């Protein structure tokens, strides 16, 4: 059975990381975008990680970053994946990949040319996050997109032999509906929060549904 990817994003405290570390998540995400509501200081994240030592892979989320901005984060946080959530070009991705020896994921907003954007980054990005397109926002909106499109994104990701996670408004209330489309993975932020903090009960509800569905699908 292929283990589903579960990324818990937007962690803002040591307690958030602890909750994720004790879950079945595969990735923990941190927002290093100063204008974002869930922005965290790299120095703080570095201290929390040293204390908790989570086994999950660490993902740094950036929007149109410079090489220096990524380098500054890596001085404190041992990232495993760089996730780009802005309007980065193929050449900018290549420059980042040349500088930092780790996988780079590219966020694609679901829209008419979503698949074309994926194809544009073929052979460059090691993974994709499919997110809702909301005017004036790069992500973390809590808004879903039309999940009927998931099979097309999955097919393109399979052709490229890369990861593909679904984001945008995923919650305990709709996770079963999402899993019916058999995504490879999910990327959740607001859907696992209560009053702006990670909620362990919600994390458990989501991870149980995702892993349970993957097991059921593998058996069928």
TrEMBL record:
GO terms (molecular function) for this protein are: phosphoribosylanthranilate isomerase activity
Q: Can the keyword Mitochondrion be found in this entry's annotation?
A: no
Its BP terms in the Gene Ontology are: L-tryptophan biosynthetic process
Say which enzyme class the record assigns: isomerase
Q: Which domain of life is it from?
A: Bacteria
Entry annotated with the keyword Isomerase: yes
Q: What Enzyme Commission number(s) appear in the record?
A: 5.3.1.24
| Catalytic activity, reaction form | N-(5-phospho-beta-D-ribosyl)anthranilate = 1-(2-carboxyphenylamino)-1-deoxy-D-ribulose 5-phosphate
N-(5'phosphoribosyl) anthranilate isomerase (PRAI) domain residues are 7-208
Q: Which UniProt keywords apply?
A: Amino-acid biosynthesis, Aromatic amino acid biosynthesis, Isomerase, Tryptophan biosynthesis
Gene3D superfamilies for this protein: Aldolase class I
Pathway assignment reads: Amino-acid biosynthesis; L-tryptophan biosynthesis; L-tryptophan from chorismate: step 3/5
- Ranges in a coiled coil: none
Q: Which Pfam families does its entry note? A: PRAI
Task: Quote the PANTHER family the UniProt record gives.
Answer: N-(5'-PHOSPHORIBOSYL)ANTHRANILATE ISOMERASE
NCBIfam families reported in the protein's UniProt record: PRK01222.2-1
Name the family.
Belongs to the TrpF family.
Protein name in UniProt: N-(5'-phosphoribosyl)anthranilate isomerase
